[in-house]
Amino acid sequence: MRFSFLFYTYKRILPGFGIILSILFLFAAQVHAVRIKDIADIEGVRLNKLIGYGLVVGLDGTGDGQNSKFTIQSMASMLEKMGVTVNTADIKVNNVAAVMLTANLPPFSRVGSRLDVLVSSIGDATNLQGGTLLFSPLKGADGQVYAVAQGPVSTGGFSAGGQGASVQKNFPTVGRVVSGAIVERKIQPFFNNKDTLYLALHNPDFTTASRMAEAINMALYAQLAEPPDAGTVKVKVPEKYSGKIVEFVALIEGLGVTPDTVSKVVINERTGTVVMGENVRISTIAIAHGNISIQVKESADVSQPLPFSQGQTVQVPDTNIMVKEGKSPIFLVKSGVSIGKVVRALNALGVTPRDLIAILQSIKAAGALMATLEVI
Predict the structure, then answer these.
(1) Are residues 171 and 197 in contact, defined by beta-carbon separation less than 8 angstroms?
(2) Domains recognised in the chain with CATH numbers
(3) Segment among 32-36, 255-259, 278-282, 325-329 with least mean pLDDT
(4) Are the C-beta atoms of 234 and 196 separated by less than 8 Å?
């Protein structure tokens, strides 16, 4: 009777114990994890670039000159559309500047949404401060108009001066029209009707893609995700989320994954910057790096002849050269030591960042650096 009771109790506790172990495993796996939304994007959900051409008016004599023929032609064309016929020879464009307009159309933008517009001078205007952008269409890559822009230009800088001196802050020939564009046409993504989603990794990696697919399958209790390559994870939409893709994407984006990276050392010789990943390892190697300091001092002595000797007073240069070579011991690094320990040891020896760059390049040349060395 007692044995039956214990067996019954064991059967009741075992499933709950398995669930607890699964929860603990998921929690431990996500301690150092990042969200999927931070390392991957949904394929098709992206920004769209818009571009346009326009005129900025109301400038205080800082617009395009008479050499900018396209500005004069644009003014004449605009006035003709408004019912004003004018000779191009009579148009002065000192207060007008021709500009190129660029903007980003976010995904799922609706008609009436507002966008910021970047305004850049393409003529010989010197300052766009105080100008107003006239009505200008913004087109996409397909040639369709998706937004129209108009409004005051904010440059965030200034330029002033006279004949003798001038002062300038930032770039007054580039400005921004804040919320100056209105979306007139929306892009139809047909997002809610998808039966399969593709997650595109920011940094393609086979291990990261496999971990991402495993995390999605564990969260959904089904084999719905698979990585066809190192940069993509294919996810089938379950039937219960049919027509509710937003909820499904929100569930996936919140899952935690520990990304894997390639061992890499990045060196910027211009600034003396060294960036290393945590997985960088080196094999057994001996390092010795000595510094040579050369100091040159010159002084000019005066050689003056004796009285009535009919000699000349001349300068005699006196040059002193001092050469000092630093005594650096040989540092033995054992196989498998992380690069962090090597850096700490070299810092203890007084190695500068530029010396470290030379040492890392030498270690790579010796074949002891188990990482990719990238010089930018």
Answers:
(1) no
(2) 48-155+172-183 (no CATH), 190-257 (3.30.1360), 265-295+326-375 (no CATH)
(3) 325-329
(4) yes
